[in-house]
Amino acid sequence: MALDHRIVLAGPADVAGFRREARQLLAQQVPPQQVAWVAGQTSARAPGDTASLWDEPAEPAAVTASAPPDAPAAPASGPDAPAVRVPAAFVELCNQVLLHREPGRFALMYRLLWRLVHEPALRHDPLDADRLKAAELAAAVRRDIHKMRAFVRFRPVGDDRHVAWFEPDHHIVEANAPFFMRRFAQMRWAILTPERCVEWDGEQLHFQPGADRASAPPADAGEQLWLTYYQHIFNPARLKLAMMVREMPRRYWHNLPEAALIAPLAASAAARSEAMIEAPATPARSTRTLRIQRVEAPQPGEAPRTLEALKAATNACTACPIGALATQAVCGEGPVGAQHMLVGEQPGDQEDLAGRPFVGPAGQLLDGALRELGWPRHQVYLANAVKHFKYELRGKRRLHKTAGQREAQACGQWLAHEIDLVQPQALVALGATAARALLGREVTIGRERGRWLHERADGRPVFVTLHPSALLRQPESARAAAYEGWLEDLRRCRDVAFVPSSAATATPD
Ligand code: URA
Fold it and tell me: Is the overall model pTM greater than 0.70, yes or no?
């Protein structure tokens, strides 16, 4: 099909231009296959240009087209083409995706907008390939925004100006500038990047074309102070180099003055740790100090008495090697006494960083499913069979590796303690690793899913179903059906009335 509509945007982050053009294209009933999007070289967010494509957020669920799909093409009506009503979350998604460097981002978002209007079922299909792609791009942009906030280092120039050099992955400078404006409102500063620069003069933000690294100022005396401070707060006993590199990727190091200290501090970490262990304990100064101290892990062999102690114990666990590479242990979350405990396999990349279960793509799918069932996430307790993220480094990426029997077994004690502490009435195994951990035997999900199994010594029934990641791996043609089947499983296990677990013979069927 011919690309009859060539839309040239003012710049790579021209979100306002995209909104305007998309609104007109939609009003003219131009299908996405007929549009070629071209991003110009300079960004063009005019001051105060906050025009909204969708005339700001509609009710979350309402998607109404300005014209029905089979209506005759409406003429373009200039900048005032009728507003389109889309879910508020789509507006947010669009604002993030359009900042990605991916050349196809404008086409993707116009296609999604078109489909939202013409395919109402799209809203109920979290596994749709376009939706997944958009979510992936948005996550990368959010990460980049976060890294810029964490790694910009200002250096003073002249009397009261500060300048920083930064190299973002995506077109985020304009979107991120208000954060720095609020944070450093009293200071005059500029952030230089290869593509775009931003300056705050104390009253207004000004955007300019990209700069050269050589324009960034050299180190200063204040930086020396910061280095001394960094040296002092560096705790050798807590050094996890892999995690540090993960959080502070090496490509940012040349802009971080403290990075020069990492190698020598890391090299001396083992010796300093030993010295710390050998040193006599420092007496506590007051009861207040004691109260805010970290929760200590229980002694080996001792059962943790609280979920905080469980967290401390799993963090200190060395029963298998994967903990050494993880950022932290990820225990479950949810109410003590929850009726259902849902158990997954192990934290993924995002869970490992956040320290919370099910916050990455699989978690979002699970959240969506629970929402669809009217079963709020905060009513269930979400846990994992294995408490540390197991991965393999491929370049800079940490690729999930399925936990082996050894790791699952080593972690079995922690899951057992967690069940004891939470006292759920029923257990739901998401996937084979969880099922095996809860039932103590191999489980074939295809054969045993969708029913309650009564095999546990503590009397708690176990319901087996798919892990959300299994749905994410399905070929597109099979996803919708697989998702429906999974929802049905979850609905069945939710809708069961239990007798309290103190009656160890609960029979929920
Ligand atoms: N997959 C899991 O099994 N658990 C999580 O917490 C996240 C992804």
Answer: no
